């Protein structure tokens, strides 16, 4: 073990000033177990005590006073609850009042009128006189007369710790104590010299000492920059290493040819030209799948970019190579839809496609399971039912996870166990997340982007209207229906169980019915509480054009594809998040007709919601929206990103430090390009650090 591991892993009680009781509390309250944890408990701000102020020049706008002088008097004043101890401290320029309401006896014992003291605390003015209540006090000596050597750190703490005299300021003493114990060699450099020089980064030891006890604001900024860079660098390096390791060591099934199924589908049945983005991604998949290693690929594509076709073509290649495929969708409706569109796209091609969901029961289920086990089913489509333990494949070679964020990590991990050699995995996102975020959060995955929509799509016209305009909106739908189009009207369902939301939906349904009376119009309604068959029937009637209007909750949010629909009305649009609004809007604009998205809101709309609506009106681009969403909400809230681990930075922010993130990523890529094993002498600091700080999480099997 190195010295770093020894001294920094010392239990926190070994630090002077920390009793067993305080140690316990630090563990419980702040998760501080060791010296290292304390070192990484960063101050959230600093107070400048590097200069002693003149009392006479204290200004009412100053937050703190830091003054030194002679204590003239110390007197008890007031009675009962007004009882207080008042001291007067004088320097050459003026007098300041010091006030205590508690601990009076103790203060009286400690302080002697006539002595010199240095005083620090929150400044207030009372009838023109400067005043500090409960100040920090120390003897005024020659050594400290010119102020502190560094800014005073203030730390996050808790009420319980404060009660044990570990206030935000008191931590500073502990940290000073800590720096008595650790030396430069205990915090060895972990970045190569070249990188330090290129980005003008201070040394690691410098950074740690200056982030806690900076000599000046500038020193603090340098320390912060260095540590943020380090954080971003190692997070990305680890992810990339996992990917490299996987590429090197994970065996994958080999699809080495493109056979008759793919070829005849491509030549004779595909009714459109693939977009360049689709072709590119398909090439990437083929390259991976032919390489002998396991593919673990994230496909990001905007709503309507044609991800399903990429999945289908890949599954045909799998079938051509004698492997089975599985396509998982997050909902029954989506699974059904994929099943239907894939079956009809394949026409009379000899491919055995089956669907398996929670509602596949009895004999039918048994028969399908048998065919899957025998290898007769080439493409199995379904919900998470397809990854249950009972579903055994003969030779699963390819797995597609559609609309990825609805699946849990554990569910996805199940996939890996479905074959001796794990199948290739293609994860397709429902809504794009920003590139920078994707590359950080999913740096261990192979990554593809489809940033192109099929040709001929017209941008969707998005409009924000007040609810009072509902009659006009309904008239507009009538016009579209008269042209043969269809429309969605969506109601928010914030909580599946919320009675109020359902009441609103039903009320809305009745209202819509009054605008669109039968038998001239027919309406489908779909919501989460319906039995599955009813949902299916209603959905199906809309898909086939039997009904012109679909009233629904967000159950139709992802994936539903009815190209004839041209109007999307979203009621109470202020209640939806950006990615959800974008997803819903993506239900229209799927055909060649001009489409519209109308966002209805009440009169009271919060600023945040107004901002979201503005963004929706301004752009149709899912990647743009994802960037904006990240800015508005921060990375933790973005759907489809990992909750913990990769994005959990202590100092860096994926929103505010985007440039640095980019720089760190480029640095990592360049380093690995040149030295994939991290074995060159110049990279020894990196290697040592990685060795000492082994990541606890294995990311490689997550997608
Ligand atoms: P998403 O990426 O949102 O899952 P889909 O796969 O549902 O999108 O595709 C949306 C629609 O676009 C479907 O009707 C599909 O048939 C059609 N489509 C896919 N690729 C193309 C293409 N290259 N040219 C024209 N239409 C396409
Ligand atoms: Mg889709």
Textual characterization of the structure:
There is one protein chain. With 703 residues, the protein is an alpha/beta fold. Among the domains are: 97 residues, Nucleic acid-binding proteins (OB fold (Dihydrolipoamide Acetyltransferase, E2P), Beta Barrel), CATH 2.40.50; 154 residues, Rossmann fold; 159 residues, 3-Layer(aba) Sandwich (Rossmann fold). The chain contains 24 helices and 21 strands. It has a seven-stranded parallel beta sheet, with helices on both faces. A six-stranded parallel beta sheet has the order 16-21-20-17-19-18, sandwiched between helices. The longest helix has 33 residues. The radius of gyration is 33 Å and the shape is globular. The two termini are 34 Å apart. The C terminus is likely disordered. The chain binds adenosine-5'-diphosphate and magnesium ion (MG). Magnesium ion (MG) binds next to helix 12.
Summarize the structure.
This protein is of the alpha/beta class and about 700 residues long. It is built from 24 helices and 21 strands.
Q: Can you lay out the helices and strands and say which pair or pack?
A:
Layout: H1 3-8, H2 20-30, H3 35-39, E1 45-47, E2 64-77, E3 84-90, E4 95-100, H4 104-110, E5 116-126, E6 129-133, E7 136-139, E8 152-154, H5 159-163, H6 171-181, H7 193-198, H8 204-212, H9 217-249, H10 260-269, H11 276-289, E9 296-301, H12 307-320, E10 324-328, H13 332-346, E11 353-356, H14 362-374, E12 379-382, E13 396-402, H15 409-415, E14 424-428, H16 435-441, E15 446-450, E16 461-466, H17 470-482, E17 486-490, H18 499-515, E18 523-526, H19 532-543, E19 549-552, E20 565-570, H20 578-585, E21 596-601, H21 607-618, H22 622-633, H23 658-674, H24 684-692
Parallel strand pairs: 4-6, 9-14, 9-15, 10-12, 10-13, 11-12, 13-14, 16-21, 17-19, 17-20, 18-19, 20-21
Antiparallel strand pairs: 1-8, 2-3, 2-5, 3-4, 5-6, 5-7
Helix pairs in contact: 8-9, 9-23, 10-12, 11-12, 21-22
The chain binds adenosine-5'-diphosphate and magnesium ion (MG).
